[in-house]
Each structure stands twice: as structure tokens, then as C-alpha cells.
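Input C-alpha cells:
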């Protein structure tokens, strides 16, 4: 075997010609028979780095999953991280990202999707279209399919009035003429507010935040009714799906994510029910991330994926 083939990680480009994606491939040092690879998909304004390491420099979920016998593929969305950003980035849509991720799955074969936040609508859409490529989905505080969201007006003032309305998803409106930079105050209040977030590493974490396509943000909140929808939730029933949520996530109260799970026929884990408290939105980098990775791995073993 060539020495390069023995390396435990490599990188490559995949995706579509229009929207290429950079992918880190973390190889398992001892691949276990029957254990499918994992594709770990980040959420809005982030990159795949959130799965590779934590801001306080512990090993990330990709490393933990690989140690458990699974190859792990960690893409950056188009225009994020090391994926090229095209001039039309402000009009990059959720379906564009999902289509690029499907191109990756076509290369590597059937896999488990581990998706976070705005990656949720992509996963539901991808699973309905290519059930042969998506064997299971783990949603970490995932966005629901657009079918479950209220149609919100394309009116900045109206959206501003709803910014604290949990039933509307605490929406944010973004003009689709330039990338959106989310402030440190927004990140602290929305993503780093939980007791288990490594607060001493916030500056390092915020350094990883990427500019976002305003179209993706508007679609995430179903502004103008443009959220990414699925055709029929029955098409996902029977597919192993796990949704996991903590109690300190302002945009994911229990009733919201539990409703998503019920709609999709998914198993729902509300972490306080398991005696696990203090988690927020960024579970993969919070101080008990290893314990949460173990829950995911045990579930995948139980559903034989």
C-alpha cells in the first residue's frame, strides 16, 4: 500500500460544476464492517470546521466518529470555508447546496447524514429525492421542512416585529444583494448562550463564522413562502431519523423540534429527558460533545446503519 493511502485524512473537491464543495475526508483507522460512512453537514454561517475540532481545542465529532469505525466526510457548503464563492453567492439557495451535497453522495455511495440547523431542510429534501443514497439522518437542532413553517411576508419591518416570536422561528430578514455577516452579539445570543458552550473560547469560535447567503437565511425562515419543502412526509417514514435538541436553544424549543420529528416519523431526543442539561445550539462543540457523539453512535448501531 502506498504511504499516501495510509493517511487517516485527505481532502478533495466535489459538488456540482456551478457550486463546487471542499470536503475533508477523515478516514477511520479501523473501518468496521457494516458501518456506513457519515457525511457531517454544518449549518448557516459556519463551515465544516465545527465537526473537526472544538474552539477549546478538543477533538471534534468527525474524529470521534472515525475512531468508532466510520469514515467521515465533512463538506463546506458552496461559498463557505474552502469552497469557492461565486459572484452569485447572495442568490445561493438551499436547494443549490443540497444538490451539491447529493453530488458528493453519488461519489461515495450510501451514507448517514449528520446535519445541523439550516442543514435540516436540505437533509429532508435529499432523503426524499435520493432515498438510495441517504440511509439515515441525525438532525442536531435541525430546521424543519418548509411545509411546517408559516409563510412570512417579504417585508423587513414585519420580520423585525417577529424577531422574538418563537412560533415563527425568531426570523431574520436579509436583503438579497450582498452576503450577510452575522455579528458577534448575534452569535453570542443565538449560538453561544448555553452553559455548556466553551465561553473562554468564544473569540476563537467567532473567528470561524462565515458570511452567509441572504437567500439561504430567508428560505430558512420561509420568508415569501420560499422555504425548501418536501413533497410528502410519508416518503421519509421508515427511514431511520433521529432529532436531538437541548433546552438552551432559543430557536429550537421542545415543541418545535418535537413537531418536526412527529411530522417526519423520527425519533426525538430531548436531552433533559436523559438527564443531560445545559446544551444549546452548537452541541458538537459544547463541553459534553463526546457524550453526545456517543448517543449518536449508539443510535446508529441500534438502527444498523
Amino acid at each position: 500500500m502506498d504511504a499516501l493511502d495510509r493517511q487517516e485524512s485527505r481532502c478533495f473537491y466535489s459538488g456540482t460544476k456551478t457550486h463546487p464543495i471542499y470536503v475533508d475526508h477523515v478516514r477511520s483507522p479501523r473501518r468496521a464492517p457494516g458501518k456506513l460512512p457519515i457525511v457531517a453537514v454544518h449549518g448557516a454561517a459556519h463551515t465544516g470546521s465545527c465537526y473537526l475540532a472544538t474552539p477549546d481545542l478538543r477533538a471534534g465529532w468527525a474524529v470521534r466518529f472515525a475512531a468508532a469505525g466510520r469514515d467521515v466526510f465533512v463538506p463546506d457548503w458552496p461559498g463557505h470555508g474552502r469552497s469557492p464563492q461565486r459572484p452569485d453567492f447572495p442568490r445561493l439557495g438551499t436547494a443549490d447546496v443540497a444538490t451539491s451535497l447529493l453530488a458528493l453522495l453519488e461519489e461515495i455511495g450510501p451514507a448517514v447524514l449528520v446535519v445541523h440547523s439550516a442543514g435540516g431542510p436540505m437533509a429532508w429534501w435529499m432523503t426524499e429525492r435520493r432515498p438510495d443514497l441517504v440511509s439515515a439522518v441525525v438532525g442536531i437542532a435541525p430546521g424543519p421542512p418548509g411545509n411546517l413553517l408559516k409563510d412570512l411576508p417579504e417585508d423587513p419591518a414585519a420580520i423585525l416585529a417577529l424577531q422574538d416570536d418563537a412560533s415563527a422561528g425568531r426570523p431574520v430578514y436579509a436583503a438579497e444583494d450582498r452576503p450577510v455577516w452575522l455579528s458577534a452579539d448575534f452569535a453570542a445570543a443565538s449560538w453561544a448562550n448555553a452553559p455548556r458552550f466553551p465561553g473562554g473560547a468564544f473569540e476563537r469560535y467567532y473567528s470561524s463564522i462565515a458570511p452567509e447567503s441572504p437567500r439561504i437565511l430567508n428560505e430558512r425562515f420561509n420568508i415569501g413562502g420560499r422555504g425548501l419543502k418536501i413533497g410528502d412526509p410519508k416518503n421519509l417514514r421508515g427511514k431511520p431519523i433521529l432529532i436531538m435538541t437541548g433546552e438552551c436553544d432559543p430557536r429550537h424549543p421542545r415543541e418545535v423540534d418535537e413537531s418536526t420529528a412527529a411530522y417526519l416519523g423520527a425519533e426525538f431526543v430531548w436531552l433533559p429527558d436523559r438527564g443531560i442539561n445545559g446544551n444549546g445550539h452548537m452541541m458538537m462543540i459544547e463541553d459534553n460533545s463526546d457524550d453526545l457523539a456517543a448517543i449518536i453512535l449508539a443510535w446508529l448501531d441500534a438502527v444498523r446503519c
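Residues 152 and 215 are 14 Å apart (CA to CA). The longest helix spans residues 94-108.
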